[in-house]
């Protein structure tokens, strides 16, 4: 019920408050700043440091878009959003772009009149428990208290899974990641469920991560990606092809370190088009020929961004998995640049 209320409220806001017909690209250029909605604080994805500087996987994408549109990755205003406000802020034009681990679903794509510009992280819902609980499978969580964000896709998935498996659900509703982490830490619930990437980030932030485990089962598909309003076709294309440029750059071996050399020497026609050497694809987006170069130079290609923020050598420690290139058994795949 709560999910339907939220969907209805935001859909109404999108119809009545959103700047329909506005050219977002021109607006961003006029103010010389991109407004990017991000998680209020999820380690590895989007979080401010002690000096208020934002870093993370999603933050890096916002910076890449700013580099594409404004020529400077620092020209971003990061707006913290929570579960309840994220889509409303986008609908009302308070942010230009939402990059906040939001799942692409049918209802969000249609009822909320949103446009998902692609998938920047293929995720799935998991469960975290303390080792001393003595369980090794989600199937052992029958009649165990579980914290979950109310009104989220995670809450719906949780109810569906327990119903399908004939299990008794003892759900503890929380309003945010922060509340979920706090109540789980205070043992007000015995398990915590959300996207597996979020669980990895939460576990890494604990003082005793070795005492917590993420169970092996993944119970849902959670394709996460950047979101814009549905009536912004040109802006959606800019965001979408910025993401594809980062993915394609990794596939073709274009990195933040070798890009200048490849501009001069690459004989690969796809790389030449991507980097604006032989064709001006940017003109079709209202951009210049070097737009993709700036996206890559801002923080690296998709693989560089992943490794630097959430990869196996970081405290988050995520393997590429489904987020590997299609040539490496993953799902990351960019359409041709031609």
TrEMBL record:
Domain Solute-binding protein family 3/N-terminal as annotated: residue spans: 33-262
Signal peptide: 1-22
One Pfam family per UniProt: SBP_bac_3
Tagged with keyword rRNA processing: no
Entry keyword set: Signal, Transport
UniProt-listed Gene3D superfamilies: Periplasmic binding protein-like II
Coiled coil: none
Family according to the record: Belongs to the bacterial solute-binding protein 3 family.
Protein name per Swiss-Prot or TrEMBL: Amino acid ABC transporter substrate-binding protein
UniProt organism field: Paracoccus spongiarum
Phylogenetic placement of the source organism: Bacteria, Pseudomonadati, Pseudomonadota, Alphaproteobacteria, Rhodobacterales
């Amino acid at each position: 019920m709560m999910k339907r209320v939220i969907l209805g409220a935001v859909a109404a806001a999108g119809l009545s408050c959103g700047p329909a017909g506005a050219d977002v690209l021109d607006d961003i250029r006029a103010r010389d700043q991109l407004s990017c909605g991000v998680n209020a604080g999820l380690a590895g994805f989007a979080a401010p440091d002690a000096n208020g500087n934002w870093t993370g996987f999603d933050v890096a994408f916002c910076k890449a878009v700013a580099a594409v549109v404004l020529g400077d990755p620092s020209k971003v205003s990061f707006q913290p959003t929570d579960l309840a406000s994220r889509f409303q802020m986008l609908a009302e034009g308070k942010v230009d772009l939402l990059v906040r681990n939001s799942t692409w679903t049918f209802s969000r794509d249609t009822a909320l009149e949103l446009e998902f510009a692609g998938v920047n992280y293929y995720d799935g819902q998991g469960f975290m428990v303390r080792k001393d609980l003595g369980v090794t499978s989600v199937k052992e969580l029958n009649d165990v208290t579980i914290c979950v964000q109310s009104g989220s896709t995670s809450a719906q998935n949780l109810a569906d899974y327990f119903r399908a498996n004939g299990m008794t659900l003892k759900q503890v509703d929380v309003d945010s990641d922060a509340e979920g982490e706090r109540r789980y830490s205070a043992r007000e619930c015995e398990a915590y469920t959300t996207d597996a990437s979020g669980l990895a980030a939460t576990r890494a932030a604990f003082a005793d991560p070795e005492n917590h485990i993420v169970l092996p089962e993944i119970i849902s598909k959670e394709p996460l990606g950047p979101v814009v309003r549905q009536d912004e076709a040109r802006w959606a294309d800019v965001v979408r092809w910025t993401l594809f440029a980062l993915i394609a750059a990794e596939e073709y071996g274009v990195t933040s370190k070798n890009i200048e050399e490849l501009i001069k020497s690459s004989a690969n026609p796809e790389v030449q088009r991507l980097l604006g050497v032989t064709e001006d694809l940017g003109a079709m987006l209202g951009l210049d020929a070097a737009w993709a170069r700036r996206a890559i130079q801002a923080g690296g290609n998709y693989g560089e961004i992943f490794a630097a923020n959430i990869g196996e050598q970081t405290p988050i420690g995520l393997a590429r998995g489904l987020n590997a290139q299609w040539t490496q058994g993953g799902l990351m795949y960019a359409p041709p640049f031609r």
